[in-house]
């Protein structure tokens, strides 16, 4: 799994719209650079990585974040909060 984390982190890329999507879904207001740092930290400290279809799902249960990454081009698609909604 360590090699996969390195591969994803090394090749990861972002679109302009994904920064907005991440801020909205995680309810945070960070700069693009800070979002990139958060995503890389999430990847390196992830608990689990699943490949389903054409995507990787990177789970970080400590920070309660899931990052969805396209497995072909390593583009971040979205993030989700894993916190249970009450």
TrEMBL record:
Protein name: DUF3781 domain-containing protein
Domain of life: Bacteria
Pfam family, one: DUF3781
Source species of the chain: Apilactobacillus timberlakei
InterPro entries hit by this protein: DUF3781 (IPR024229)
């Amino acid at each position: 799994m360590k090699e996969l984390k390195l591969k994803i982190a090394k090749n990861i890329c972002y679109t302009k719209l994904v920064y907005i999507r991440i801020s909205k879904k995680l309810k945070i207001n960070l700069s693009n650079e800070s979002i990139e740092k958060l995503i890389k930290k999430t990847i390196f400290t992830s608990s689990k990585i699943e490949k389903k279809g054409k995507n990787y799902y990177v789970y970080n249960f400590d920070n309660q974040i899931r990052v969805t990454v396209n497995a072909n081009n390593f583009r971040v698609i979205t993030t989700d909060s894993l916190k249970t909604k009450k």
